[in-house]
Amino acid sequence: MEELFSSFQNIPTTCISDVFEGLNNLDPSIKPLKEDYKFAGRALTVKMPVGDNLVVLKAIREAKPGDVIIIDAKGDQYRAIAGDFVVGMAKTLGVSAIVVDGVIRDITGIKNLNFPVFCKGTAVAASGKAGVGEINVPISCGGTAIQPGDIVVGDADGVVVIPQSMGQEVLEKSREKLKKDEQREQDVSGNVEAIKKYLDNMLSK
Ligand SMILES: O=C([O-])CC(=O)C(=O)O
């Protein structure tokens, strides 16, 4: 499994998306805090109520090194699911990324941690800590269904989810797609005649 995750780290999310024809991507409003963030890992799913993040602390406590904490926060943009303190603990315990259809706070501190956080943006208010929520249950995040153990991959373009059972197959297909994309680029790069030929060919179909 570890090998699969490190292999996916070398595949652009765009190629994985193309394999699924765009069906397994998270909503594009969920973006990396820094463009160079790239991760691939096992989904530790979190279902939290709007404005209460105690269950996020539980997820961090239970996470195994390499896990991606992926949170269904119902799209709430008013209460941060974590700040630099909480994200710092996740980083130190070996979590590989946090993905949420919600917001974070202390953005400067979180950027300084150089830890991949993918979210909808920032807010000033913290969440409460009353305590309901579930981990490792099926969730919906950014319009996509995610099962615990699925493979989550993120980079500058966004986040894509691969069902656990399809990991190897999708890796092979994504590699093929990457090769095709590179070849396509190589075939026309900087060559006016080759570009015209490519376009004419596409338009005559
Ligand atoms: O404690 C929280 O929920 C959010 C926070 O301020 C931090 O993580 O620094």
UniProtKB/TrEMBL annotation:
Needed cofactors: a divalent metal cation
Annotated TM spans: none
Highest rank taxon of the organism: Bacteria
Database matches in InterPro entries: RraA/RraA-like (IPR005493), RraA/RraA-like_sf (IPR036704)
EC number: 4.1.1.112, 4.1.3.17
Catalytic activity: oxaloacetate + H(+) = pyruvate + CO2; 4-hydroxy-4-methyl-2-oxoglutarate = 2 pyruvate
Subunit annotation: Homotrimer.
Role description: Catalyzes the aldol cleavage of 4-hydroxy-4-methyl-2-oxoglutarate (HMG) into 2 molecules of pyruvate. Also contains a secondary oxaloacetate (OAA) decarboxylase activity due to the common pyruvate enolate transition state formed following C-C bond cleavage in the retro-aldol and decarboxylation reactions.
Family statement: Belongs to the class II aldolase/RraA-like family.
Identification of the protein by name: Putative 4-hydroxy-4-methyl-2-oxoglutarate aldolase
Origin species: Metabacillus endolithicus
